[in-house]
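Final report, results section. Input specification for complex C-07:
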Amino acid sequence: MVFTLKICIIGFGTVGRGIVELIHKKNLDIEVVGICARNCCVYDRNGINLEHLIKNTAGLPLEKYPKADMALDTDKMIDTKCADVYVELTPTNIDHGEPGYSFIKRILSNSCHVVTSNKGPMVLHSRELKQLAKKNNVELLYEATVGGAMPVLNLVRENLRGNSIQSIRGILNGTTNYILTRMAAEGAPFAQILKEAQELGIAEKDPAYDVDGIDAAAKAVIIANEFFSKDSGMKDVDMTGITRITPEFVSLAGKNGFSVKLIVEVSDNVLRVAPRLIKKSHPLAVDGTLNALNLKLDMAGEVTVVGYGAGKYETAGAVISDILSIKN
Amino acid sequence: MVFTLKICIIGFGTVGRGIVELIHKKNLDIEVVGICARNCCVYDRNGINLEHLIKNTAGLPLEKYPKADMALDTDKMIDTKCADVYVELTPTNIDHGEPGYSFIKRILSNSCHVVTSNKGPMVLHSRELKQLAKKNNVELLYEATVGGAMPVLNLVRENLRGNSIQSIRGILNGTTNYILTRMAAEGAPFAQILKEAQELGIAEKDPAYDVDGIDAAAKAVIIANEFFSKDSGMKDVDMTGITRITPEFVSLAGKNGFSVKLIVEVSDNVLRVAPRLIKKSHPLAVDGTLNALNLKLDMAGEVTVVGYGAGKYETAGAVISDILSIKN
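Structure output:
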């Protein structure tokens, strides 16, 4: 039976807006029945008029939208079970995972599907949440948490069936890759390139999450728990950032045919994020804000995938692909 | 309901043997009930003893196997419908597509699933065969025809759902990539490297299929028909091989930061195979026998996948992944 999938979006930031815009522009067979922000929701059981919503929320918080209901909170929207799929996009917090963790538990307990781009709950509670999804016979999909638009989790699950993964190595943070790429190209010091990246909006004002390797480590944990049946946490990651990389080191590496990259390594007994020398001819040696992941597999040999790990539409696209996979 | 998938393998060459070995070694939940070679079949409705078969057919044609039935031909094996999935692995012929074309038609008409690594039928008759599969409500899967172990068709179908493909570019022939890589590294002429590649078994005795771009063009046709809803054939491909590439040209390109690669280009109005200059820092600039494919997509931006396009276990692994996707 063909039916239109109903979704409710929780979190109306960059990615949430990107999803709404793409569903509208591409006329995808997905009906948005609810959108929740911190202190209000928009709800229409017959499908929100996305054109009207997009036009009237540009640059504005959702509460300024005339149709926003300030009395309707996210928990209520979850409990109405108005949607087949709840799309959880609240800000990532890898210390306590909230508010995403509680929302996802509530949705799964209601036997509704979850698609999320939120690393926090998956880093802290993946085993519990996967079991809850299984128990309630619903999907919990989170492709966008690792590598944004670059297929990783679904690539292995759906395209490389039957393969055993021996090890995974890759670049999972675009900000640090951008900084290292520019250090190599210009011979400039870390601090200077970081400052320029902040001005360009590529690095955050508080850059620690990226440059200390925390973001990459969070993704490493999700990968370890997914592919090596671990129940790992951030404390299990051997983590070194890029703050002490000097332009002299990058230059010396370059002269010898190597690029310096912040590399995530995951295998049955390794869980590490650290700067590594990668041969320039190796498929992982990608530049700029690109992410890349190399999988060593028993049948396929090595498969590498390269793509954009962040970006409004790139991340929104990964979420939409997950949503559509539930339908099909 | 969990059940063990029954398969019948048609064609017992390198890939067929690789599949049998992998199913046995990895103890995959797949039962091989039939294996067909040119002039005999092995059949056991309760599952062929793979350990016995592997031990007693090493280096030998299937007809030397004591349990081979010389009176049983492939058509009969297809008509018994002994298997859920028929795995069609006969040699590729891109002029007439036989014998694979007739086998695949017969299997689909019997409402059995087909997994194939055979480019010929898909280059010549993809529209007809896809329609026949649809009419009989069975799967026709052919991931291994494009890029071997490198996921391409299933990557787009299953991981990048909702994306519109704007264009595809890539390296889809490992032999020519190996030759060009060595020409760049050693400054040696095409003919010399080709000869050495032939001695190493990387290039065929008749190298035209690879070096003239025919193999890459066949894959380009499959991609065009798959992703751009074309009904293209080999005659529609604007094809140039690598035989006239000089070491001087490769060297000059290298000095300017470029690699010379035999590139397949497919979009709504382009279907081309030709040598191209690729920036060394671009994800497509992979060396050796690697294949690589870069997809421009409306949501995900650019995604590149890199992997081995050939090889006994690599290709067998792609076929097995297709088989397992039917099960799940």
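Chain A has a mean pLDDT of 95. Chain A touches chain B through 48 residues (CB under 8 Å). This concludes the modelling results for the funded period.
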